[in-house]
Amino acid sequence: MSASPVAAALRLRVACAWAVAIAFAAGAVTLAQVAWERLPHARPLEELAYYPSGQHLRPATLGHAESAADLAWLRAVQYYGEHRERDNRYERMPHVFDMLTTLAPRFESAYVFGSFALAQEGRDFVGAETLMQKGLDANPTSADLAFQAGFLYYVKTGGRDLRHAAEYFERAARLPNPPPQAARFAAFSRQHAGDLRVAYALWKDVAEHSTNSYLRDMAERNLMEIREALARNHPEQAIRKLSTPEVRLGP
Fold this sequence. Notes:
With about 250 residues, the protein is mainly alpha-helical. The protein has helices at about 5-40, 45-50, 55, 65-85, 95-105, 110-120, 125-140, 145-155, 160-175, 180-195, 195-210, 215-230. It has a domain at about 1-40.
């Protein structure tokens, strides 16, 4: 039995549609191959780095800023990894992390990772300070972020900045749920920055309030050392020259 004219016309239209689809698919594959061979390969974050700022990007996310931040975070880590392996040049890193943290101002890991990458491997301490301060402004009650700011100064490339380190360690120790080592780092930083009387007060607090017996013993030893140095009028006896370690963010 022969097919009806309607059915025959339908089959013809389907066959034509498939033929067109196959032709377009073949053309797309060919075009992709040519583009891969002849055009520069895209670099991680390149499409994100051209946005003028996170403030300009936020309206384009249509209410999905957190999802856009997740993507930016993945690309930022990829960007860091590629440049660490290839050339250790991070020209776009400040812009990238500024944009990322504008999209997700509570994302503390981005401030920490970005700051240490800039300071330690990008050799851009000013950019690191700017990013970390942005994080502190956006998260003023974060003891962990305040402690990380102190540590940024504590391991500053080219020479520790112990006075700034101590300020942020002390700030961390005063905030709710501080890292347990914040008070100890604050006292240690003050002592070796030469602020012996402040260091003494901080060590005394550790000795009186720490629940860790090892830390209490450490505090007592430092208190004795400071007392003896001040009594002999030789404060340098309680101050040791500290070398600056280099922090690497990955293997």
